[in-house]
TrEMBL record:
The gene is gltX_2. The lineage of its organism: Bacteria, Pseudomonadati, Pseudomonadota, Alphaproteobacteria, Hyphomicrobiales. The keyword Ligase applies. PROSITE patterns: AA_TRNA_LIGASE_I. This is Glutamate--tRNA ligase. The keyword Ligase applies.
Length: 281
């Protein structure tokens, strides 16, 4: 019997148009999938109702098709799976591995005990065992759910490692240090998940074997590895590629005015031009 083909995925958030950085990531996924006789999926990561829009998701899929990407349909949309994420959150709650957090951004910034790998304030655990918690929850105060990192590490104390693959697919591994994220948010105040929880559940649900994404998500993988262990999920191999930068050395971003693929197309740039420019000719 032949081995199952590897499964790759490109997972954009539809909060703007795709730019060259996204195109590089998508094309690298496609190239690695092609070289390894694998499958390519696209997943729309639209859990954030304040920033994501269905028309932007459609525009992203159209841009990817214009770029010549072939991916399987139907495309998974995270907003259609909130009940699955809520169930996983409830299972962590039943095991005492998450706790409700009522704090505002401002309170967290003021009480912070350092920075997480993304540079955001580390949560000091204010709401863990807070005296007025039950009364505030009963009164309907909006709350997030945070991983209790100490309890999580006690539940799975063994060393963790991230399985990696380089761009040629050669396997490797490195130690994971999820503690650097502290009591990370797993359920937001407005949706019953966070990026970290949804991404590990979806990668498992879709049978993803290879996660190829930007270097900016490398550190988050340590937390993903812990969540996979806590939830009994398989762990894919990870390849984090260098980010494309603008001439000032800043990473490309919609917020910094990097041209979108749609802008480039309107200027007469072709999909072949983009593939060549990104090294995929
Ligand atoms: N949705 C994330 C983004 O657009 C990528 C998540 C991932 O590849 O794990 O930055």
């Amino acid at each position: 019997m032949s081995a199952r083909p590897p499964v790759f995925r490109f997972a954009p958030s539809p909060n703007g148009r795709l730019h060259l950085g996204h195109a590089y990531s998508a094309l690298l996924n496609a190239e690695m999938a092609g070289r390894m006789h694998g499958r390519l999926l696209v997943r729309i990561e639209d859990i954030d109702p304040t920033r994501c829009r269905p028309d932007l998701a459609e525009a992203m899929l159209a841009d990817l098709r214009w770029l010549g990407l072939r991916f399987e349909e139907p495309v998974r949309r995270q907003s259609e799976h909130l009940a699955t994420y809520a169930a996983a959150l409830a299972s962590l709650q039943a095991r005492g591995l998450v706790y409700p957090c009522l704090c505002s951004r401002r309170e967290i910034a003021q009480a912070s005990i350092g920075r997480d790998p993304d540079g955001a304030p580390l949560y000091p655990g204010t709401c863990r065992g807070r005296a007025d918690l039950a009364a505030r929850l009963a009164a309907g105060t909006p709350h997030a759910w945070r991983l209790d990192m100490r309890a999580a590490r006690a539940a799975c104390p063994e060393p963790l490692c991230v399985h990696t693959a380089d761009a040629a697919g050669t396997p490797g591994r490195r130690p994971a240090e999820p503690e650097r994220w502290g009591d990370a948010v797993l359920g937001r105040k407005d949706v019953p998940t966070s990026y970290h929880l949804a991404v590990v559940l979806d990668d498992a649900a879709q049978g993803v074997t290879h996660v190829v994404r930007g270097q900016d998500l490398d550190a988050a993988t340590d937390l993903h590895r812990l969540l996979q262990r806590l939830l009994g999920l398989p762990s894919p191999r990870y390849h984090h590629h260098a980010l494309l930068r603008d001439p000032d050395g800043e990473k490309l971003a919609k917020s910094r005015g990097s041209p979108s693929l749609a802008d480039l197309r309107a200027q007469g740039v072709t999909a072949d031009d983009i593939r060549r420019r990104l090294g995929f000719a």
